[in-house]
Design a protein that fits this description.
By secondary structure, the protein is an alpha/beta fold. The protein is built from eleven helices and nine strands. The strands form two sheets. The chain has a six-stranded parallel β-sheet, sandwiched between helices. Strands 5-4-6 form a three-stranded antiparallel β-sheet, covered by helices on one side. Helix 6 packs parallel to helix 11. Bound molecules: adenosine-5-diphosphoribose. The site of adenosine-5-diphosphoribose has 26 residues, from loops. Adenosine-5-diphosphoribose binds next to loops.
Length: 248
Protein backbone atom coordinates (compact mmCIF):
# COMPACT_ATOMS: atom_id res chain seq x y z
CA UNK A 1 0.00 0.00 0.00
CA UNK A 2 2.68 2.52 0.95
CA UNK A 3 4.44 2.00 -2.39
CA UNK A 4 1.19 2.74 -4.22
CA UNK A 5 0.60 5.87 -2.12
CA UNK A 6 4.12 7.10 -2.98
CA UNK A 7 3.43 6.31 -6.64
CA UNK A 8 0.12 8.19 -6.59
CA UNK A 9 1.88 11.08 -4.83
CA UNK A 10 4.50 11.23 -7.59
CA UNK A 11 1.91 10.96 -10.38
CA UNK A 12 -0.34 13.67 -8.91
CA UNK A 13 2.48 16.02 -7.91
CA UNK A 14 3.66 16.10 -11.53
CA UNK A 15 0.19 16.92 -12.88
CA UNK A 16 -1.84 20.12 -13.13
CA UNK A 17 -4.84 18.58 -14.78
CA UNK A 18 -6.38 15.99 -12.49
CA UNK A 19 -10.10 15.28 -12.45
CA UNK A 20 -11.80 13.20 -9.76
CA UNK A 21 -14.86 10.99 -10.26
CA UNK A 22 -16.49 10.12 -6.93
CA UNK A 23 -19.27 7.81 -5.78
CA UNK A 24 -21.12 6.86 -2.62
CA UNK A 25 -18.02 5.18 -1.16
CA UNK A 26 -16.33 8.54 -0.51
CA UNK A 27 -19.19 9.52 1.83
CA UNK A 28 -19.37 6.22 3.75
CA UNK A 29 -16.95 7.57 6.38
CA UNK A 30 -19.38 10.50 6.81
CA UNK A 31 -22.11 8.09 7.88
CA UNK A 32 -23.94 7.89 4.53
CA UNK A 33 -24.45 4.23 3.48
CA UNK A 34 -23.47 3.13 -0.05
CA UNK A 35 -26.12 1.90 -2.49
CA UNK A 36 -24.57 -1.48 -3.24
CA UNK A 37 -22.52 -4.07 -1.40
CA UNK A 38 -22.61 -4.77 2.34
CA UNK A 39 -25.04 -2.45 4.15
CA UNK A 40 -26.07 -0.89 0.82
CA UNK A 41 -29.44 0.92 0.60
CA UNK A 42 -30.49 -1.14 -2.46
CA UNK A 43 -30.05 -4.32 -0.37
CA UNK A 44 -33.07 -3.22 1.68
CA UNK A 45 -35.20 -1.47 -0.93
CA UNK A 46 -35.67 -2.07 -4.64
CA UNK A 47 -34.27 0.96 -6.56
CA UNK A 48 -36.57 0.32 -9.53
CA UNK A 49 -39.54 0.54 -7.17
CA UNK A 50 -38.44 3.40 -4.97
CA UNK A 51 -35.92 5.44 -6.97
CA UNK A 52 -37.48 5.41 -10.44
CA UNK A 53 -39.22 8.52 -11.79
CA UNK A 54 -42.27 6.53 -12.93
CA UNK A 55 -42.91 5.33 -9.37
CA UNK A 56 -42.32 8.79 -7.96
CA UNK A 57 -44.85 10.34 -10.37
CA UNK A 58 -47.40 7.60 -9.61
CA UNK A 59 -46.90 7.33 -5.82
CA UNK A 60 -44.83 10.29 -4.51
CA UNK A 61 -45.98 9.62 -0.92
CA UNK A 62 -44.59 6.09 -0.98
CA UNK A 63 -41.21 7.23 -2.30
CA UNK A 64 -41.03 10.09 0.22
CA UNK A 65 -41.94 7.77 3.08
CA UNK A 66 -39.59 4.93 2.23
CA UNK A 67 -36.56 6.68 0.71
CA UNK A 68 -36.48 10.44 0.80
CA UNK A 69 -37.36 11.08 4.46
CA UNK A 70 -34.48 8.82 5.65
CA UNK A 71 -32.11 10.29 3.07
CA UNK A 72 -32.86 13.78 4.41
CA UNK A 73 -32.11 12.77 7.99
CA UNK A 74 -28.82 11.05 7.07
CA UNK A 75 -27.61 13.83 4.75
CA UNK A 76 -28.56 16.59 7.24
CA UNK A 77 -26.26 15.01 9.86
CA UNK A 78 -23.34 14.21 7.52
CA UNK A 79 -20.05 16.18 7.60
CA UNK A 80 -17.15 16.08 5.10
CA UNK A 81 -14.54 13.42 6.00
CA UNK A 82 -10.77 13.30 5.35
CA UNK A 83 -11.32 12.12 1.77
CA UNK A 84 -13.48 15.14 0.90
CA UNK A 85 -11.04 17.44 2.70
CA UNK A 86 -8.09 15.86 0.87
CA UNK A 87 -9.65 16.55 -2.53
CA UNK A 88 -10.32 20.15 -1.48
CA UNK A 89 -6.60 20.45 -0.59
CA UNK A 90 -5.59 19.04 -3.98
CA UNK A 91 -7.73 21.76 -5.59
CA UNK A 92 -6.05 24.42 -3.44
CA UNK A 93 -2.61 23.04 -4.46
CA UNK A 94 -3.65 23.60 -8.11
CA UNK A 95 -3.43 19.87 -8.89
CA UNK A 96 -7.14 18.95 -8.93
CA UNK A 97 -9.13 20.80 -11.57
CA UNK A 98 -12.65 19.56 -10.84
CA UNK A 99 -14.74 16.87 -9.14
CA UNK A 100 -17.42 14.97 -11.04
CA UNK A 101 -19.61 13.45 -8.31
CA UNK A 102 -22.46 10.97 -8.45
CA UNK A 103 -23.34 11.92 -4.87
CA UNK A 104 -26.24 14.22 -4.00
CA UNK A 105 -24.96 15.09 -0.49
CA UNK A 106 -23.10 18.36 -1.26
CA UNK A 107 -20.13 17.27 0.93
CA UNK A 108 -17.46 18.19 -1.64
CA UNK A 109 -18.57 21.80 -1.59
CA UNK A 110 -18.82 21.75 2.22
CA UNK A 111 -15.19 20.53 2.29
CA UNK A 112 -14.18 23.52 0.15
CA UNK A 113 -14.10 22.25 -3.44
CA UNK A 114 -15.23 25.01 -5.74
CA UNK A 115 -15.54 23.19 -9.06
CA UNK A 116 -17.97 20.31 -8.51
CA UNK A 117 -20.21 18.77 -11.20
CA UNK A 118 -23.22 17.22 -9.49
CA UNK A 119 -23.89 14.57 -12.11
CA UNK A 120 -26.96 13.22 -10.25
CA UNK A 121 -28.10 16.54 -8.80
CA UNK A 122 -28.21 17.68 -5.17
CA UNK A 123 -30.67 16.69 -2.44
CA UNK A 124 -30.36 20.11 -0.80
CA UNK A 125 -32.92 21.47 -3.30
CA UNK A 126 -36.54 20.64 -4.06
CA UNK A 127 -38.69 21.61 -7.08
CA UNK A 128 -42.50 21.94 -7.12
CA UNK A 129 -43.96 19.69 -9.81
CA UNK A 130 -46.81 22.18 -10.34
CA UNK A 131 -45.34 25.72 -10.35
CA UNK A 132 -41.64 24.77 -10.70
CA UNK A 133 -40.71 26.79 -7.62
CA UNK A 134 -37.31 25.70 -6.25
CA UNK A 135 -36.63 25.81 -2.52
CA UNK A 136 -34.11 24.45 -0.05
CA UNK A 137 -34.88 20.99 1.36
CA UNK A 138 -34.40 22.24 4.90
CA UNK A 139 -37.29 24.69 4.37
CA UNK A 140 -39.90 22.12 3.41
CA UNK A 141 -42.42 20.83 5.95
CA UNK A 142 -42.01 17.07 6.25
CA UNK A 143 -44.88 16.61 8.67
CA UNK A 144 -46.96 16.37 5.50
CA UNK A 145 -46.00 13.50 3.12
CA UNK A 146 -45.61 14.08 0.24
CA UNK A 147 -44.43 17.61 1.10
CA UNK A 148 -46.31 20.31 -0.79
CA UNK A 149 -45.62 23.79 -2.11
CA UNK A 150 -47.96 26.65 -1.13
CA UNK A 151 -49.48 26.27 -4.62
CA UNK A 152 -50.48 22.74 -3.61
CA UNK A 153 -47.96 21.09 -5.94
CA UNK A 154 -45.79 18.19 -4.72
CA UNK A 155 -42.08 18.71 -4.13
CA UNK A 156 -39.52 16.46 -5.80
CA UNK A 157 -35.77 16.49 -5.00
CA UNK A 158 -33.44 18.09 -7.58
CA UNK A 159 -31.80 14.66 -8.01
CA UNK A 160 -31.73 12.38 -11.03
CA UNK A 161 -34.07 9.41 -10.54
CA UNK A 162 -33.57 6.20 -12.49
CA UNK A 163 -35.36 6.65 -15.81
CA UNK A 164 -34.30 10.31 -16.06
CA UNK A 165 -31.59 12.00 -18.16
CA UNK A 166 -28.39 13.48 -16.74
CA UNK A 167 -28.65 17.30 -17.08
CA UNK A 168 -27.06 17.93 -20.53
CA UNK A 169 -24.73 20.72 -19.33
CA UNK A 170 -23.29 18.33 -16.70
CA UNK A 171 -22.82 15.60 -19.30
CA UNK A 172 -21.08 17.95 -21.76
CA UNK A 173 -18.76 19.48 -19.17
CA UNK A 174 -17.88 16.08 -17.67
CA UNK A 175 -17.13 14.67 -21.08
CA UNK A 176 -14.83 17.65 -21.81
CA UNK A 177 -13.01 17.27 -18.52
CA UNK A 178 -12.65 13.51 -18.96
CA UNK A 179 -11.24 13.81 -22.47
CA UNK A 180 -8.67 16.50 -21.52
CA UNK A 181 -7.43 15.45 -18.06
CA UNK A 182 -4.08 13.67 -17.68
CA UNK A 183 -5.10 11.79 -14.52
CA UNK A 184 -8.56 10.67 -13.38
CA UNK A 185 -8.83 9.78 -9.69
CA UNK A 186 -11.77 7.38 -9.32
CA UNK A 187 -12.88 7.20 -5.67
CA UNK A 188 -15.57 5.07 -4.04
CA UNK A 189 -17.69 4.04 -7.01
CA UNK A 190 -18.80 0.54 -8.06
CA UNK A 191 -18.55 1.83 -11.67
CA UNK A 192 -21.84 0.08 -12.54
CA UNK A 193 -24.08 3.04 -13.37
CA UNK A 194 -23.96 4.77 -16.76
CA UNK A 195 -23.15 7.28 -18.07
CA UNK A 196 -20.97 8.20 -15.03
CA UNK A 197 -19.04 4.91 -15.27
CA UNK A 198 -18.10 5.76 -18.85
CA UNK A 199 -16.09 8.86 -17.83
CA UNK A 200 -12.95 6.90 -16.81
CA UNK A 201 -13.16 4.94 -20.08
CA UNK A 202 -13.27 8.21 -22.02
CA UNK A 203 -10.35 9.58 -20.01
CA UNK A 204 -8.33 6.41 -20.63
CA UNK A 205 -9.04 6.54 -24.37
CA UNK A 206 -7.77 10.13 -24.35
CA UNK A 207 -4.48 9.02 -22.81
CA UNK A 208 -5.12 9.79 -19.14
CA UNK A 209 -3.83 7.66 -16.26
CA UNK A 210 -6.61 6.12 -14.13
CA UNK A 211 -6.00 5.75 -10.39
CA UNK A 212 -8.74 3.91 -8.49
CA UNK A 213 -9.33 4.10 -4.71
CA UNK A 214 -11.74 1.52 -3.32
CA UNK A 215 -11.61 -1.23 -0.67
CA UNK A 216 -12.88 -3.61 -3.33
CA UNK A 217 -12.07 -4.26 -6.98
CA UNK A 218 -14.64 -3.09 -9.52
CA UNK A 219 -15.33 -3.88 -13.20
CA UNK A 220 -12.93 -1.04 -14.00
CA UNK A 221 -9.98 -2.44 -12.08
CA UNK A 222 -8.78 -4.90 -14.72
CA UNK A 223 -9.91 -3.15 -17.88
CA UNK A 224 -9.51 0.58 -17.27
CA UNK A 225 -7.50 1.42 -14.14
CA UNK A 226 -3.71 1.78 -14.28
CA UNK A 227 -3.67 0.79 -10.61
CA UNK A 228 -6.00 0.53 -7.61
CA UNK A 229 -5.20 1.49 -4.02
CA UNK A 230 -7.39 -0.76 -1.92
CA UNK A 231 -8.72 0.69 1.34
CA UNK A 232 -10.76 3.48 2.92
CA UNK A 233 -10.71 6.72 0.92
CA UNK A 234 -10.21 8.92 4.00
CA UNK A 235 -6.94 7.31 5.05
CA UNK A 236 -5.60 6.88 1.52
CA UNK A 237 -6.31 10.39 0.24
CA UNK A 238 -4.90 12.00 3.40
CA UNK A 239 -1.72 9.92 2.99
CA UNK A 240 -1.42 10.90 -0.68
CA UNK A 241 -1.82 14.62 0.11
CA UNK A 242 0.87 14.30 2.81
CA UNK A 243 3.15 12.55 0.29
CA UNK A 244 2.59 15.32 -2.30
CA UNK A 245 3.33 18.08 0.20
CA UNK A 246 6.68 16.41 0.99
CA UNK A 247 7.52 16.46 -2.71
CA UNK A 248 6.44 20.05 -3.43
N1 LIG B 1 -13.74 4.40 0.71
C1 LIG B 1 -13.73 4.18 -0.64
N2 LIG B 1 -14.64 3.39 -1.28
C2 LIG B 1 -15.57 2.77 -0.53
C3 LIG B 1 -15.64 2.94 0.89
C4 LIG B 1 -14.67 3.80 1.51
N3 LIG B 1 -14.67 4.05 2.82
N4 LIG B 1 -16.68 2.19 1.36
C5 LIG B 1 -17.25 1.58 0.27
N5 LIG B 1 -16.58 1.93 -0.86
C6 LIG B 1 -16.85 1.51 -2.25
C7 LIG B 1 -17.55 0.16 -2.41
O1 LIG B 1 -16.60 -0.90 -2.44
C8 LIG B 1 -18.27 0.34 -3.76
O2 LIG B 1 -17.43 -0.07 -4.83
O3 LIG B 1 -17.73 2.45 -2.80
C9 LIG B 1 -18.49 1.85 -3.85
C10 LIG B 1 -19.94 2.30 -3.67
O4 LIG B 1 -20.66 1.80 -4.77
P1 LIG B 1 -22.23 2.14 -4.93
O5 LIG B 1 -22.89 1.99 -3.64
O6 LIG B 1 -22.70 1.34 -6.09
O7 LIG B 1 -22.24 3.71 -5.26
P2 LIG B 1 -22.04 4.46 -6.64
O8 LIG B 1 -21.02 3.80 -7.48
O9 LIG B 1 -21.84 5.87 -6.31
O10 LIG B 1 -23.49 4.29 -7.33
C11 LIG B 1 -23.73 4.98 -8.51
O11 LIG B 1 -26.04 4.40 -8.47
O12 LIG B 1 -27.76 4.00 -7.10
C12 LIG B 1 -27.30 4.89 -8.01
O13 LIG B 1 -27.69 7.20 -8.21
C13 LIG B 1 -27.07 6.25 -7.40
O14 LIG B 1 -25.18 7.74 -7.69
C14 LIG B 1 -25.54 6.41 -7.45
C15 LIG B 1 -25.15 5.49 -8.57
Amino acid sequence: MDELIKRAGRDLASSKNVVALTGAGISVESGIPPFRGKGGIWEKIDPMEFAHIDTFMKEPGKVWNVLLKDMKEIIDKAKPNDAHKGLAELEKLGILKAVITQNVDGLHQKAGNRDVIEFHGNFAWQRCLECNKVCETREIDLTQIPPRCECGGIYRPECVFFGEMIPPHHLIRSRDLASTCDIMLVVGTSALVQPAAYMPVMAKQSGAKIIEINPEKTPMTKSVSDYIIMGQAGRIISAIVKEIKQQL
